[in-house]
Amino acid sequence: MGHVDTGKAVAVRGLRKTFEADNAPIRALRGVDLSVAPTEFVAVMGPSGCGKSTLLNLIAGLETPDDGQISIDGRPLDGLSEDELARIRRRHVGIVFQFFNLLEGMTALENVALPAVIAGRSRRAAEGRGRDLLDLLGIGDKASMMPALLSGGQRQRLAIARALANDPTLLLADEPTGSLDSEGSMEIIELLRRLHAGGQTIVLVTHNPDVAAAASRVLAMRDGRIEG
Questions:
Q1: Any idea which of 27-31, 82-86, 122-126, 165-169 has the lowest mean pLDDT?
Q2: Is it the case that residue 187 has pLDDT exceeding 50?
Q3: Which of 3, 21, 155, 200 has its CA 20 to 30 A from that of 145?
Q4: Domains of the chain from N-terminus onward
Q5: Cβ-contact 112, 161 below 8 angstroms
Q6: Better pLDDT: 24 or 130
Q7: Which pLDDT does position 49 carry in this prediction?
Q8: Nearest residue to 3 via CA among 88, 110, 76, 98
Q9: What pLDDT, on a 0 to 100 scale, did the predictor assign at position 14?
């Protein structure tokens, strides 16, 4: 294992991950190195099945690598328990998924406030933060609405607001425009640009070059390796 630079927002060295499918190994990652500086916006672009979502899940601590090292905001993830990984996710990482993963039985404001409540904030403080984020993301007037009543672009804005609830060091986005039409996609691209301009560190994975173009640095991924 190589040394991980703990001065980075994200530092990955020698990351390998293999899955079993139909009794055959799938080598999702084949020795990935990646460094992301604080406030940088990096896009990892590649076709479906190249390993980019696996990479994001490993950085988020949602899965563990077979080999290699990861640090988030200078904190190595090696050997941490599930509880310790969950604590790092709550405090340092926000995650945005392609299909939103919103709680349909809660209002927009309740969805955004929930991560802060889980992290130990009072409901009043969490809802105050939630209202500020909904305003920042242009959907403050949707606070009392249920997610099913929102457009695709509004639902993804809501998902991003929820990911920012605990003021994370790092925002991870997995195909954040993948289920949106072109208008909704442009909304989210512009929103991510604005968040980056405000100092947010972002790592995004996508197969769409228009989405990748929003980033300050684009890396190509193919067959479990980052090519450049």
A1: 82-86
A2: yes
A3: 200
A4: 10-107+168-226 (3.40.50.300)
A5: yes
A6: 130
A7: 86
A8: 76
A9: 96
Half-sphere exposure of 9 (CA within 13 A, CB side): 20
DSSP per residue over the chain, as a string?
A: -PPP-TTSSEEEEEEEEEEEETTEEEEEEEEEEEEE-TT-EEEEE--TTSSHHHHHHHHTTSS--SEEEEEETTEE-TT--HHHHHHHHHHHEEEE-TT----TTS-HHHHHHHHHHHTT--HHHHHHHHHHHHHHTT-GGGTTS-GGGS-HHHHHHHHHHHHTTT--SEEEEESTTTTS-HHHHHHHHHHHHHHHHTT-EEEEEES-HHHHTTSSEEEEEETTEE--
Bridge partners of 72, per DSSP, are: 10, 75
Residues ≥6 apart with Cβ < 8 Å to 56:
44, 172, 174, 203, 205
Residue 21 has pLDDT above 60, yes or no: yes
Within 10 Å of residue 3's Cβ, how many Cβ atoms?
8
Both structure tokens of 80: 């941490």
What percent of the chain shows pLDDT beyond 70?
A: 97
Tell me if 98 sits within 8 A of 156, measured CB to CB.
no
Distance, in Å, from the CA atom of 45 to the CA atom of 208, rounded to the nearest integer, reads 7
